[in-house]
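Aim 2 progress update. The chain analyzed this quarter is reproduced below.
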Amino acid sequence: MPMNPNSLKLEELAWPEIGALVKEGWTKIIVPLGSTEQHGPGLPQGVDTWHGEETSLRAAAQLYRTLVSPVVPFGYSPEHQSFPGTISLRRDTLTMLLEDISESLVRSGFTFIYFWFGHGGNWAVARDCLHAIRNRWPGCVITFTEDIDRYIAETWDSYPLKEGIALEISGSHAGEFEASVTAALRPDLIRLDELAAGDPRPLNEIIESMMKYGIESVSKNGVLGDQRHPDSDRGNRYLDCMANWLIQDFNQQYKKNEK
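Predicted structure tokens:
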């Protein structure tokens, strides 16, 4: 059995390969959490799922003996449910799903399981769930992107400015940031004639109303930002920015939990 796998994606490996890799020290795994939810009139429903998986794969390629689990394509998205096609799990459903994923991976021999967020709405649910189970299995660490505010501040809220994109354009949901990421990953699925501007305000100014009354209470088309300016090259740099942040946080948490 070769030391390097044919793929970093768990679902593309056969069970004898996975067993051999675990014995050789491939005991770390990233679990990307996505969603199926509206992203305005010009972008498809799978944006969070695709960039959650892609950033995980880019990170794993640079991490030591780390695999990537299948991305979870559904999440906690009640604020988007007035738009057709959004699929939102209940909090309890997502909690049980994360617990079952963790237990299954532990049984397979993984000892460091890191949950990564393609969809930020999953974070609060995952925080409560994963803190409760992180020490359930001796010898195994269950962890996640704990400092979500720092992650957003150092990626979504800062990197677009380095690219010359104002934050009211890049946006916090379905704006230029996610439009450019989609242009890098699935350009064939962008509806160029339907791309539109939405509410330009920072998320902290509208999140209370959005979570209470739905995103339509602040943006009739579901866009926070302006999705009319996608650029695939910039989208690739956004993906690298997020992947680099993941690498840093993954390594810091791994070293912290080694002690």
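The longest strand covers residues 28-33. The chain is about 45% helix and 5% strand. These observations will guide the mutagenesis experiments scheduled for the next reporting period.
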